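SEQUENCE WITH STRUCTURE:
===
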Amino acid sequence: MFWTRQLIYNRMKIIHIIPGSGGNFYCGNCLRDSKYVDALRNLGHQVVKIPMYLPLFSDEHDIKDIPVFYGAVSIYLKQLYPIFRKAPAWFDNLLNSKPILKLAAGRSGSTRAKGLEELTISMLLGEEGKQKEELDRMIDWIAKNCNPEIIHLSNALLLGLARRLKEKLNTTVICSLQDEDVWVDVMEPEIRDQIWKLMHDQAQHVDGFIAVSNYYGNLMMKKMDLPAQKIENIHLGVNPDDYRYINSVEKSRTIGFLSRMNFNNGLDILVDAFILLKQSDEFKDVKLVITGGSTGDDSDTMNSVKKKLKDSGLRHEVDFHANFEGEARIEFFNKVSVLSVPVRSEKAFGLYLIEAMASGIPVIQPDHGAFPEIINLIDGGICYQPNSVESLHETLKKVLRDKDLLEQKSHNGYEGIKKHFHIKTQSEKMIAFYQKTIQAASNEYI
């Protein structure tokens, strides 16, 4: 058993169900959920995290005995080819083995919406979809190993699980809201509208939603037609003690990029701005460090930016960090004096922002999505507009040439993280919402 059955007052039994990325790129959602799991455990609660689709990270020391449910290879083959739905258990287990899943995670198409429209719809249909057996397998495992008061779904694309989880396990279901629109809105309009409608319909089986920002809570209220009283906005958090604060004015001038290295995250925009910056002797000392990993889908972007750097004679001025997990990410932060991820889409949050600011690194971001909400709250960076090479270039110049500004933004960011984005405080808010939601659900039956 993962949990003892004895009654422990004020200690909650919680499951977090988290889709994995396979550990091939910086996955803010995976990190968000794993950080919350650790923080909730530190508060004395009993928490189990259950991975879906792909493994979460390279280092999975705390879930070695927990299977990956809805293995990406297996459910993809079963969705496309009915013959695989009759495959023997040993073959299914082989496809769901962690080595096979990690191998699949690095291939093209493993983590993008295009080509997975039918699978997305089927997953949202839950027990009425083509993955009913896998849903039953997950529920059987939870019933045997856990006795949760709360099951927390990582995002609204998992809403198809909610009804059966509630029925079979008699538990409260919470769902986070973060970047579902990035997945859904790239699909063809007819399919996109069908998916938003399905998400709205399945939302009735969820007791409460947690949005990661005010911006995104308001957006999802509209897209999913959710009642405001069902949504709680709780910012993400980090533990400042997990990072090494160094004021950026004490470092050499180095620009950092931390995210999946692809077109949507604006890697090319930052590289072009860096090339423009280096045309001036004033910035001849400035370096660029890039990390965050990639999949096969990102090879065109990677090849393009590396060619640009080579053609401009700047390839030696740029460091591509292969490793971005654990201590390697701390080493990255130690080198960087400003960070920018010029994302093209409007993001629900951006965990890399508060990780950077906890390290004393000012952030320079496009003025859209939740970025101004986060940055302006603690004055730990600058938002620029429009999201163009020229605008980013001018903002980088402003920050890198002004030591007083750099020092102040670095200090503000670090102090602001402790005050507004400490994960202990945010986790306490989450527990309070859990308890309030359980109480509201129980009142319905009185």
User: Anything to note?
Assistant: The chain has two domains: 13-237+424-443, 240-420. The CA atoms of residues 22 and 55 lie 5 Å apart. The first strand starts at residue 13 and ends at 19. The two ends are 32 Å apart (CA to CA).
